[in-house]
């Protein structure tokens, strides 16, 4: 696997009602260099641990005995924007889109290889590392219209008020802003922001673009900043035109 800085310092929360899966993932993650692993067997327990321990990433099963993983995700998104990777025995694309659309960052279908989950976790941390540290200019504040992005602190404000974004929404916005006024293909966006091949990510990208517009645009249906360039991709217009 590729190297990611500071794995031993990362805190991982695993939420699944199957003890065997929790124990197996914990064992593999420790072998991969992670030292702090929290485990929860119910959704409510997972939310509580999230509040108390503030993990850096969450692996979340959709099928839980009390409340389902999608509801857990909604509640967690009220308190943190750390990456969330869903686990599910369901393979329906609708479930996948719903999961990613409400704030999930990736999705692994059961049965799975624990090493695959470890790989997906490292991908998330690598993306965060790349987006924040790859270029000294990435620390410079970016402004367009009434929106301000502070890459150094990972913050976004609109009219002076904080905008709550998921980790992936933030990474997507930052990438668009760092390449303002340039047309970026969906394939290029997927490779840079998701760290994955484009195949199968078309709808996921559209969902994240829609959410950014809902949170940042005065009129999401007539976006001034995040533009769709038909047949080519997307671009962020720094001039708002």
Please describe what this structure looks like.
The protein has 241 residues and is of the alpha/beta class. The protein has eight helices and eleven strands. The protein has a five-stranded parallel β-sheet with strand order 2-1-3-4-5, with helices on both faces. Strands 6-7-8-9 form a four-stranded antiparallel β-sheet, covered by helices on one side. It has a two-stranded antiparallel ribbon with strand order 10-11. A hairpin with a 3-residue loop joins β10 (226-229) and β11. α2 (43-53) packs parallel to α3 (69-76), α6 packs across α7 (186-194) and α6 (167-178) crosses α8.
CATH architecture classification name of the largest domain = 3-Layer(aba) Sandwich
**Helical stretch count?**
8
Biggest sheet features: 5 strands, parallel
What number of domains? 2
Helix/strand structural class: alpha/beta
> Segments where pLDDT lies below 50 for 5+ residues?
none
Taking Cα atoms only, what radius of gyration do you get, to the nearest Å? 18 Å
How much of the sequence lies in strands comes to: 15-25%
Mean pLDDT: 85
